[in-house]
Design goal:
Number of strands: 0
Helix content: 55-70%
Structural class: mainly alpha
Shape: elongated
Length: 256
Amino acid sequence: MFSANSIHSNSIFANLPSEARDWAEKLHWNERRYVLSLCHILCAAPSEAQAEFLDEYTADGLVSRLLEDRDTHQKVKRYLEQFRIATELTESLLRGYIRQFYIHCAQDMHRQPEQYLEVAVRLMGNTQESNNAFNYTLGFELLKMLFRMSWIQQERLYRLQRNQEEFLNQYIKPIRFAHQLNGIIVPKDKKKFFAKRDYYVQDPVISKKKLTELVMVTFAADTVTEFGFSMIRHPNFLQFNYEYIYHPEPEDILGN
């Protein structure tokens, strides 16, 4: 039995859901030792080891919950089809994205150190939070699509948006910087028309593994999640016209 002080508003146990507090209170001494051992090992483990453990311990339940949410599942599926992204929302794919979400959050620890160990609890806690796995999946797939676009295709895309400047600064510029930093697209002789034509129409060549790494390094996990959430909540958040964006006509090179 915990003392009155142990459930004081500033204590650790006060922050637990009442069901979890009741369960912890009823544990036998030996079982309490096991819980403490698990807490110690988890906190001391490197971030990737934490992510691997959390994946093994929680992913099956999370995937089952996601697959039961047919409404959100269908929305994400429709958006992938709308953007002509050939990704199927299989159980295996969702499980992979859940594990990646843990790892991505771990990489952001220097920006959000207090949130990483809460991610699994939040995802397991309720349907609304677990839907972040869907938001993250959709956001990540869209950002991979942007990374694969040539610069002229990116330019056509952001010109379709209602808030062009915000979209350009938040998504396009970081991606172009990553393209240049990794030698994927290297602008040369920017002031020369034909030189600009060459690198503006160049299709980025990026392996699947490298593409995932680039998105994770370029964008924080919460940015990816928010991107997907905005799409699911606001159907017209991202204006998209496939024929216009991927049209090969050279006169559009300078955005005309």
